[in-house]
Amino acid sequence: MSDHDRLARGFEAQRPRLHALAYRMLGSAAEAEDAVQEAWLRLGRAPEPGNLAGWLTTVVSRLCLDILRARRETPVEQIPETAARNAPEDEIVLAGEVGRALLVVLDRLAPAERIAFVLHDLFAVPFDAIGPILDRTPATAKKLASRARGRVRGTPAVPAADLARHQEVVTAFLAAARGGDLGTLLDVLAPEVVRHADPAALPPGVPAVLRGRADVARGTRTFAGRAAFAEPALIDGDAGLVLAPAGRLVGLLKIEVRAHRVVAYEVVAEPARLAASTIALLTGNAV
C-alpha cells in the first residue's frame, strides 16, 4: 500500500468524527464538509503527521475558527419564514439529531468560546491540545470553555420544581401543536389563555392577540407546520420553545404556565427582540 493510500484510509476513518465536530462548531452541514475537505487537501501538502487524528482535529478546528470569525465581521441577515422549506434536507436532519436548541445557543457564543466548548465538552479534547488551536494558554482555554458552559446551561429564573413542571407543560403543548389536534390543545390551555404574536410571525390580516381557549387553540393549530422545527429551551429563565429550522433561530415562544396549564404565550419573531432574549438549554436537551 502506498503512503497516499494509507493516509487516505486514515483520513476516511476520521471523516465522520471530523464532520460531526465541524458541524457543531459551524451549525452548517455544507460548511462542515468544506472544512473537512480542506483539511484533506492540507494533509496532502504537509509532512505526514505522527498523530493523524490530533493533526486533523487541529486543522479542522482552526478552519472552523476562521469561518466563525468571518461571520462575526459580516453579520448574516435574519433567515426568513421560508427557511424550513428552503433548508437542505441534511441540514434539517442534522439539526434534529444534534438538537436545535443547542445549535441556537452555540451560535450565540464568541468563536473562541464555541471552539473550546465543543472540543472539550462534546469531544473530550484536553485543554493542553485546545490552547494551541486558539493561540491561548490551556488555562485560558479552560476559562473560555467554562464561560461557554455557563451560557449553554443558563440560569433559571424560577425554582427547580416549578421549572420541571413548566417544562412538562411546554412539552405537552408542543406535542399537541405538532399533532394539530384541537381536543388535545384544549386540554393543555387554560380557559383564559391569551396569545400575543409579533406581526413578523403572522400572515397579513391575522390578529396579533387572541383570547380564550377556543380561539387560541384554533390559532395554535396553524403553528403545526413550524412546530416540527420547534424544541424546548430555557428562555429568559423559564421553559419555552425555540423555532429553529436547520438550527437557525427564526422565532421564540415565551410560555407562561400556571396550575399545569398554559395561561399565556407570546410568539417573538422581531430580530431585535430575538437578539435581546436569553436562550439556554433545558434539562433533558442533549449536548
UniProtKB/TrEMBL annotation:
- SUPFAM superfamilies cross-referenced by the UniProt entry: NTF2-like, Sigma2 domain of RNA polymerase sigma factors, Sigma3 and sigma4 domains of RNA polymerase sigma factors
Query: Per the database record, which ranges form the RNA polymerase sigma-70 region domain?
Result: 12-72
Family classification: Belongs to the sigma-70 factor family. ECF subfamily.
What interactions and quaternary structure are annotated?
Interacts transiently with the RNA polymerase catalytic core formed by RpoA, RpoB, RpoC and RpoZ (2 alpha, 1 beta, 1 beta' and 1 omega subunit) to form the RNA polymerase holoenzyme that can initiate transcription.
- Keyword tRNA-binding listed? The answer is no
Q: What organism is the protein native to?
A: Amycolatopsis ultiminotia
Looking up InterPro entries in the UniProt record yields:
ECF_Sigma-70_Domain, NTF2-like_dom_sf, RNA_pol_sigma-70_dom, RNA_pol_sigma70_r2, RNA_pol_sigma70_r4_t2, RNA_pol_sigma_r2, RNA_pol_sigma_r3/r4-like, WH-like_DNA-bd_sf
Q: Where is the RNA polymerase sigma factor 70 region 4 type domain?
A: 101-150
Name of the protein this chain belongs to: Sigma-70 family RNA polymerase sigma factor
Q: Which UniProt keywords apply?
A: Sigma factor, Transcription, Transcription regulation
Name any one Pfam family assigned in the record. Answer: Sigma70_r2
Keyword presence, Transcription regulation? yes
